[in-house]
Design a protein that fits this description.
By secondary structure, the chain is of the alpha/beta class. It has seven helices and 16 strands. Strands 2-1-3-4-5 form a five-stranded parallel beta sheet. α1 links the parallel β1 and β2.
Length: about 240
């Protein structure tokens, strides 16, 4: 995958470059200190993935992300955790907080590579139906039977959704809204623009985040009241 780094801090650019260079699937085309120069480069060069800082002079990372082609993937790399919800609004692949953990960086890249392969494939994938507490999901030219109770959460990423099980991820072509419409609302709650959680899999939560296994998912302001009303009225949780 052809990638670039956009960050106004030289030390940050150097650190991310070192991690990029350690992954053979990535080809670094350039590093840039601001969105303006990165945007100029992208007019003449095809970029598959951007490692993008958010708080920069001039055009910030969120606004820059809104301006690029939807097939260019974004992994945000920032020192500010409070922008996580904003990253969902621009369908970022992942959101890494500095100092960036190497293992998390690699997982984010693996996710980007998987999604990039789907974009190249172009195969129509979807959830075929929901019945008897299970769904049949078409992915990679196969149908997978998924028990609803085993779903931890569902993540939206541009035109696809990722169905996260405890030991498996299934990626299928569908919008978050459409799959949410198919699922039983008594069990599956949408907690931000990009995530639907299985409330029976929630281990804990606070005013800002839901914790499921090793995953931490932010609660969006728009969805917060409905989430707490449902959880607090659910005696079985």
């Amino acid at each position: 995958m052809r990638c670039i780094i956009v960050d106004d801090e030289p030390i940050a650019r150097q650190g991310i470059k070192k991690m990029v260079d350690s992954i053979s699937r990535l080809k670094l085309l350039g590093t840039f200190e601001n969105a303006r120069t990165a945007g100029g480069f992208m007019k003449d060069n095809l970029v598959d993935l951007i490692f993008l800082d958010i708080k920069m002079p001039g055009i910030n990372g969120i606004d820059f992300a809104r301006s690029i082609h939807k097939n260019t993937l974004i992994i945000f790399t920032t020192a500010y955790s409070e922008y996580a919800l904003d990253s969902y609004e621009v369908d970022a692949v992942d959101y890494l907080v500095k100092p960036i953990d190497t293992a998390k960086f690699r997982k984010a890249v693996e996710k980007a590579v998987a999604y990039h392969s789907l974009l190249l494939d172009g195969d129509k994938k979807s959830v075929e139906n929901v019945e008897n507490e299970r769904i049949f999901v078409k992915s990679d030219r196969r149908f997978f039977k998924v028990n609803l109770k085993d779903i931890l959460f569902i993540e939206g990423l541009k035109d696809y959704v990722i169905i996260q099980l405890e030991d498996q991820r299934i990626i299928t072509r569908m919008s978050v809204k459409n799959i949410h419409d198919l699922l039983p609302k008594v069990t599956f709650l949408r907690i931000n623009r990009s995530y639907i959680v299985n409330k029976n899999q929630i281990d804990s939560f606070n005013n800002n985040d839901v914790f499921i296994k090793k995953y931490e998912i932010a609660i969006g302001n728009y969805y917060r009241d409905a989430f707490f009303e449902e959880l607090m009225n659910n005696k079985s949780l």
